[in-house]
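User: Could you check the structure of this?
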Amino acid sequence: MRSPGLVDLQVNGFAGVDFNDAALTAQALDHALEAMLATGVTTCLPTLITATPDDLAARFDALDRAVATSRLGPLMCPGYHLEGPFLNPAPGFRGCHPFEAMIAPDAALVARLAAGLKRPILLVTCAPEREGGLDFVRAMRAQGRAVAIGHSEVSFDLARAAAEAGATMSTHLGNGLPQQMHKLANSMFAQLAEDRLWGCFIADGVHLPPPALKSLLRAKGISRSVLVTDAVAGAAAPPGLYALAGMAVERDADGAMRLPGTQTLAGSALTLDQGRAQRDRLGLRHARGGARDGERASPRRARRRAAGAWRRPRAGRDDMAPTTARRTTRREDMTVARARVGDVEREF
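Assistant: Sure, the predicted structure tokens are below.
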């Protein structure tokens, strides 16, 4: 069966490679992207998490250089996702992100980080309740960037206001939240109720138990749902210790990624084809529209569907042709037999 490739909007690393590494090389990036191709992903947004401004600048510089000089980066990476540092630092909301590096939303910082990059920062995750949060959402949209709510304690009113300001997504909805919250008046329900927000979900069976995922997909609406991996270096790799943005993270025997010695999740070991299979097992495969996991989506359509109107960067800043061919051929068991992106074709 032939179909367009999958699109992953949130991937921090893959196959032993950490995209948040300031020493990232083109060779290492190609290794990770080759492994992603084997799972059917032909387009992704490499994601950088919370860090100090100086560390973010160094990591973006390394990532952008690796993308530009690698074989697959120019074909598979149209831009980047910045998840933090504009998040809620309170316990539960901050997840594994280093809370000491979290700051109030700063549009000027994003502009400085993006200024020297060959590819744009396409998506920014923030907590709108932080000081200046709504103005930040408006500024990001004015800069041509999509905005997602994540690691946030938004209320119903604030979720509505953020959507009116231009937010269009919820990052890993159902996660980045405390274990104990108000029964109904909480951030998860606030984002589920706002129809202008697309919900992104990690379908690894760890971040969300399958029955909970099924309920959340139905509540948000299949046609407004997106499957992502939030993968880290332990994805498509054996159990053991890996790096994530200067932290040690551990893949256990059950496939969960955690801070060593704790129950705190630190990204996932999910691959997007596994996430789609999880969705199918829930009986949602033939639901109208399908949970958006990148199938039947070009990078341009993925950006528009998940982020609303997208303003192209200045000439010369993004050389990724929107017409680049991206397709996969799958066997009857849905494993990938062949993947093509641009002039690169692989058989598995």
